[in-house]
Amino acid sequence: MAAGSARYVRYILIAFFVLAVFYFISDSSNAISQNITIPHGNKGTDDHAHKDAVLNNQPNSHDAAGDTHNTKNKPAIPKVGANIDPAEYPLAMTPNDPGFHDLSGIKGGPRVNATFVTLARNSDVWEIAKSIRQVEDRFNRRYNYDWVFLNDQPFDDTFKKVTTSLCSGKTHYGLIGEEHWGFPDFIDQEKAKKVREDMKERKIIYGDSVSYRHMCRFESGFFFRQPLMMNYEYYWRVEPSVELFCDIHYDPFRFMHENGKKYSFVLSLYEYIETIPTLWDSVTKFMKNHPEHIAEDNSMGFLSDDGGKTYNKCHFWSNFEIGSLSWLRSKAYIDYFESLDRDGGFFYERWGDAPVHSIAAALMLPKDQIHFFNDIAYYHVPFTHCPTGEKLRTDLKCHCDPKNNFDWKGYSCTSRYFEVNGLEKPEGWQDQTD
Ligand SMILES: Nc1nc2c(ncn2[C@@H]2O[C@H](COP(=O)(O)OP(=O)(O)OP(=O)(O)O)[C@@H](O)[C@H]2O)c(=O)[nH]1
Ligand SMILES: *[C@@H]1O[C@H](CO)[C@@H](O)[C@H](O)[C@H]1NC(C)=O
Ligand SMILES: *[C@@H]1O[C@H](CO)[C@@H](O)[C@H](O)[C@H]1NC(C)=O
Ligand SMILES: [Mg+2]
């Protein structure tokens, strides 16, 4: 009897021990055994339930699908999140920095409060799919930042299914309210219509389009205050049909955040003057009414060749932007947008969001808060930014033809940007001027 009960006690102890070991293993490999169901279970929602989405730290399908679930061969799951000391994970910016060449798995270290953002129609689904695939392959598969999609019409199931399947981070879908996509009441509809007819006759690109104007006004003044965007501090704008040609080895959001950058670009050029004949008058009026918003060390030299009297039409191309949402939500930027909006040029002309953003950044930010990402190679029809410097291109496994690089050609404003900022042009630029 006594011997028998001792045996039972032993069995019970062993059972406990086995359970404890099992629990320990399953807990330490929690993220793996959770599989992709947990992160994906939260994806594709329209609601604003954001819970743990910001600084999201779940491994994703790329991680889980790529390997077997063999914990022995699996590298430790990197620490990822908000509360990690950035000093523990220095940004590897050049090939000589430790960790630069490691592009495998989920990158450890902190994440910035940031998201990708795309304005698109349902019919753009396959073109945005191409863009997403490249952004994920070249960068986001290792970082898993969220992606916000915005539309003036409800997104359909195909759009949501396709984009959610391609994004490694969480996806959110927002419907733009009428107050952000339509004619404000102070616009004279007849006058606006006459302008469109006239521009159509003069064959000005998108000159007769109403929706293009709503799009430009939305991107100028409203995307950064959509409810879904209020959950973030930084954004990276991605349009349908764009390409990324080089690996991105470090987190550009972290670069922006840690270096105090508020706006960035890869391509710059001259605007068609027919679309903005009175934009500079409007800007001049704003500067006079709000001298308090003009930065002391501004980039007026980028915008004007005569100290501000006239606009030289230089702007950063806004279909690519990584920037600060807090800056766009600041009183300075809102005062600027509202002042321009009242003057009516989004409808009585065809002001683009590119010159609107660029003029704001150049006048209201100190020079050193604007950044040129030479190492992010990019294409949006018809222009290419392919990094200058053969060593850089091979280090980053670029697949762009350097002959197509637009930076140093006559119609680009990037040379002027370098001059205004006293920057030295990258070696080899002379070979790409035509
Ligand atoms: N939801 C929605 N999105 C739009 C509309 N018009 C444009 N967009 C989006 O707004 C962005 C800019 O529009 P684009 O048509 O690419 O304008 P663009 O870049 O000046 O011109 P392209 O050279 O044709 O690319 C893209 O992300 C489009 O998908 C619209 O009417 N509704
Ligand atoms: C992983 O996910 C698949 C499909 O969602 C499910 O069938 C499987 O049981 C999951 N595995 C684990 C370990 O949770
Ligand atoms: C991210 O930024 C938004 C907007 O400022 C803020 O409301 C939110 O609390 C931030 N999230 C985190 C985790 O810091
Ligand atoms: Mg476009």
Automatic annotation (TrEMBL):
Residues 43-53 have a biased composition (Basic and acidic residues). Pfam families: Glyco_transf_15 (PF01793). The keyword Membrane applies. Residues 43-77 are annotated as: Disordered. InterPro entries: Glyco_trans_15 (IPR002685), Nucleotide-diphossugar_trans (IPR029044). Belongs to the glycosyltransferase 15 family. PANTHER family: ALPHA-1,2 MANNOSYLTRANSFERASE KTR1. This is Alpha 1,2-mannosyltransferase 2.4.1. It comes from Podospora pseudopauciseta. The lineage of its organism: Eukaryota, Fungi, Dikarya, Ascomycota, Pezizomycotina.
